[in-house]
Each structure stands twice: as structure tokens, then as C-alpha cells.
Amino acid sequence: MSNSFVPDPRPKLDRAAQAKLAEAFNLANLSSEFYANPYSTYDALRRCEPIKQMPDGSLFLTRYADLQTVYRDALSFSSDKRREFKPKYGDSPLFEHHTNSLVFNDPPLHSRVRTLIAGALTGRAINALQDGLIRLVDHLLDQIDVKAKRGNPVDLIADFASAIPVEVIGNLLAIPHPQREPLREWSLAILGALEPRLTDQQLKRGNDAVLEFKTYLTQLVAQRRASPGDPAQDVLTRLIQGERADSAAQLSETELLHNCIFILNAGHETTTNLIGNALVLLDQWPRARADLLASFEIDSVTNSAKHPSSSSILLDSAIEEFLRFESSNQLGNRLTVCDTRIGDLIVKAGTPVTLCIGAANRDPAQFVNPDQLDIRRMPNRHLAFGFGIHQCVGLSLARLEAKIALGRFLTRFPNYSIVGVPQRGGRVRFRGFLSISASV
Ligand code: HEM
Predict the structure, then answer these.
(1) Whose CA is nearest to atom 29 of ligand 1?
(2) DSSP for residue 430
(3) What is the residue with the minimal CA distance to atom 37 of ligand 1?
(4) Which of 6, 136, 205, 297 pairs as cysteine with 306 (C-beta 3.0–4.6 A)?
(5) Given a cut of 90, is residue 196 above it in pLDDT?
(6) Is the CB of 276 under 6 A from ligand 1?
(7) Could you tell me if the CB of 361 is within 6 A of ligand 1?
(8) How would residue 319 be classed by pLDDT, with cut points 50, 70 and 90?
């Protein structure tokens, strides 16, 4: 196994250096070192300025306990982004999209949409995806095998991690296969527009993507209304029928379209990054990989690891640790709607607050040896899926995708190794890789 780059080769900074790093921190102006490894900066902030006031007056939180305070109090800490997004997006498709998504709304609109989506993402709907998911993953692994045997380079993102969520959510909404190709690009452009700083080109790409996505979905919804699918398995049919079942719960056409776009986006880059981050981590931490492989049942005929069964407890716990250690969604946002308190600080109404999930998940007050990847960590109450009324609706689906993808990949290619240095996505909110070259 290669160990071509180590997790964090830098020595811990002393207190004075940490204070300097914390003081200089500005989310609107980040260095390339930060993108490569934000954790020493997060550590400095947590120790020296855990409630950091940013130049724009917003607060940046890095302590686990402070994030919990905010997540628990949805009345004081609003998710409604209309005020914040107006200057950023103006009257644009991106503004319409983000302000109609459930994640950027408060009750009652949030609860109405959430009830419908959660009702559609049932255990039964998710279980129904399992066999197709296994077939998809095995097909991708076959293609990787062929590619590698022909001597072609393998990219664990393009050839594997990014190909999974788009198909899974495509199946969930029963989007016809030939129409799935643009979904990934649309999703990357729309979520990319949530970054703290945007170029005109990124803004344009995001707006164009919303328009194209909406046009596509409008005709898909019209077709599905005319010819409904099976509501037990087709989430789109269920959302459309949910509208009819109870007029008080009805989604408007705009809400329906934008929340479908949101489901597609929310489950896409985050899950790709979970799988990609996990494969890189298992290359960097060879003992964790060996432990995991040893936990898979051994086939007595071939003497190799069998596919992990659905009861592979260590794989479950490893996935929680990958989520904690390299959280694919690193930041969340709220706005105070009344004077309130975070820790010892009185915070005025109208203050934007950034929740740094990546930092809270490395908080030593909550996690023993937080910078150590420990696939047996117990308890592991990480915040990678958020917490409270907005906690991720797709968490069971994400866990299932990761389990099938990682379990089958590791069994098939137990000795894979990363070639060179993987290329980072270069985003602060969504942490992952654009490309990971590997030999299998
Ligand atoms: C590793 C994968 C994933 C991660 C790390 C993740 C993370 C998150 C986080 C942190 C939130 C909370 C946002 C907030 O509090 O402001 C969230 C919300 C949400 N996620 Fe995920 N997510 C993942 C996968 C998925 C998938 C697969 C789906 C759907 C198919 C999904 C659908 C949603 C939805 C609908 C919400 C909004 C919930 C609400 O506002 O009530 N996510 N996710």
C-alpha cells in the first residue's frame, strides 16, 4: 500500500502562532494551504477565538457545544436566507432556487416540505434501491478492472465515486437513464454558487444551471402527472401525489421543482465526497484498511475477503468516522432573529452565523484524539449530517451508498493505492476531491 502523503505532517503550532492564525482568519480570503488542510486553522480558532467575529460582522463557530446550541434553537437561529442571498444573487434563478429549498427555510414552510420529502424517502423506498445499487457498483468495478488491465489510469472520482449518487438519485426520482448526463454538472454549478466568494463566471454558470434544470424538470413533472410511476418507489410521483392528498400540505409548482432540484443536488456532491474521502483516508491510514478488510468474512475456498455482509459492524462504524474526520459538508449557516446567546457571548438579532462542522467534528472536548482516524470510535456523535430540525433527510441513503460502494470496492481491490497527490475540489463548504488517480 502506498503512503505517498501523510495526513498532517506539520507539527502542532504553539499558542502564539495559533493566536496569529486565528486573528488572520477570513473566510472571504483563504490560502491554498487552508484548502489542503483547514484543520490546523480550525484548531487555532477553536482554542483562541472560538466565536470569531469576521470582517463582515458575521460569527464563525468552531466548538461542538456552540454548534449544538445553534442547531437546537431553530426559533432564534433562522435558516431563511432571503435577506442574506438578495445582495449575493439579486433577482435571479439562483435566488429563486435557494430561497425555495427546504434547507433554507424555517417552519412552517420548511416543515411542510420536509414532511413530504421524508415521507417519500422511507426505509422501504431506500431498501428498494439496494439491489440496483449493488449491480451499479459491481458494473463500475468491472469497468475499472478492464481499464486497469489495459494499462489505463483509473480515477476514483470519475470512474467510481461520482458515478454512484447520480444514478441512485436518478433511480429514486425515476429519471430516464439517457437524460441523466447533465445532472452532475448542474448540481456542481448550483452548489458551487454557495461558496463565500464567487466570480461572475461562477454566478452565471449557477444561474444557467438552475434555468436548464428547471426547464428539464418542468417537462418531467408534466409527464409524470400524466403517467404516474409507483409511489412506493418513485419519489417524484410521491411528491406530486402528496400535493393532492392534503391541500394544506400542497407544494406549489415552484416549490415542487426547486425541492426536486435540491434533493438531486443535496445527495450528489456530498455522497461523492464521502466515498472519495474514505478511499483516500484508507490509503493514508493503512492499518485502518487492514483492520477493515480483516473484519470482512473470509471465503474458505479462495482465501480472499468475501463481500461484507449487511451486518459488517466495523464498516458501519468506519463510515461514521470518515464522516467525522473529513466531513463532506463543512459549513452551515444561520441568522439570529432575536438577541440571543452563544456560549458567554450575547449576540444581537440579525447576526449571520457560520457553523463550522469540520471544526466541531475535531473538537477535543467532544472527541478523544480528534486528529486520529479511529474506525472503532465509540461514541461518535459527529455533526456531519447536521442536527435538529434540518438534520439531513438523506442520511440513511448516504450511509447505504457508502457501505455498498466501499465494501465492494475494498473486497475487489484490497491493495489499491493512490498515485501522486489527489486533486482537491478547492471548495471550503464541500470538502472532497475532483480527481484521485489510483492503481488497483
Ligand atoms: C454524505 C452525504 C451527505 C451529507 C454529509 C449531508 C449533509 C447534510 C447536512 C449537514 C444537512 C443540514 C443542513 C443544515 O442544517 O442547514 C443536510 C440537509 C439535507 N440533506 Fe443531506 N447530506 C448528505 C446526503 C444527502 C442525500 C443522499 C440526500 C437525499 C437524497 C440528502 C438530502 C438532504 C435534504 C433534503 C436536506 C434538508 C433537510 C432540512 O432542511 O430539513 N442529503 N444534509
Answers:
(1) 394
(2) B
(3) 103
(4) 297
(5) no
(6) no
(7) no
(8) very high
SS3 at position 115: helix
Atom of ligand 1 nearest to the CA of 259: 35
Closest CA to 192 of 324, 118, 77, 97: 97
Q: Is 266 in the pocket of ligand 1 (CB under 6 A)?
A: yes
419 CB burial (10 A radius; 0-12, 13-18, 19+): middle
What is the CB neighbour count within 10 angstroms for residue 23? 13
Find all residues with CB under 8 Å of 273, minimum gap 6, and list them. 161, 326, 328, 425, 430, 431, 432, 433
Report the alpha-carbon distance of residue 61 to residue 358 in Å, rounded. 10
Determine the pLDDT at residue 245: 57
With a 6 Å cutoff on the Cβ, whether 164 touches ligand 1 is no
Determine if ligand 1 sits within 6 Å of the CB of residue 274.
yes
Query: How many whole angstroms from 342 Cα to the centroid of ligand 1?
Result: 24
For residue 92, CA distances in Å to 203, 210, 291 come to 10, 9, 50
Q: Where are the beta strands (DSSP E) in 32-162?
A: 51-53, 59-61, 77-78, 154-155
Helix (H, G, I), strand (E, B) or coil at 418: strand
Residue 299 identity? D
CB 363 within 8 A of CB 69: no
The H or E element that residue 202 is part of is helix 200-226
CA-nearest residue for atom 1, ligand 1, is 271
Cell digits for 393?
A: 433527510
